[in-house]
Sequence to fold (144 residues):
Amino acid sequence: HAPVTVLESLASDDACRRTAAENISSPPCVLEYLSTDEDQEVRVSVAYNRSTPVHVLEAMLDANEDNARILICLLRNPSLSSDILSKAILRELRRPDEDERRILINFFEMTRGGVCELPVATLVALSKSSHVFVRMQMAKHPLL
Fold:
């Protein structure tokens, strides 16, 4: 692995920030720094990077709650705990817009593929959603 100082330097380089964010060997401090980058593509890469620390993923969930693309990448990150994932999904249910629908579609694709597992209490809450799409998906869920 490259020394931390090399990756820190590359994370400051405009031409290399996104690549540094994609690198699973980037140290946590570099990923945390890049998680607030002005460039959405850099933040997307951090959100999707399985080496991004959980506390950074949690901060990104709050900071990017209106950015569907970043939320989808965060929801697909295997490092995100089921509790945090539950929080994000339940928050999205409160927003009846097209981005919310895209996020939920991605979530349901992931759960059907066994990528993530939610607590039963969250599944029950989802089954009571005011959104017919959500209730229909829950009717297909193997844990209910």
Notes: The chain has a mean pLDDT of 80.
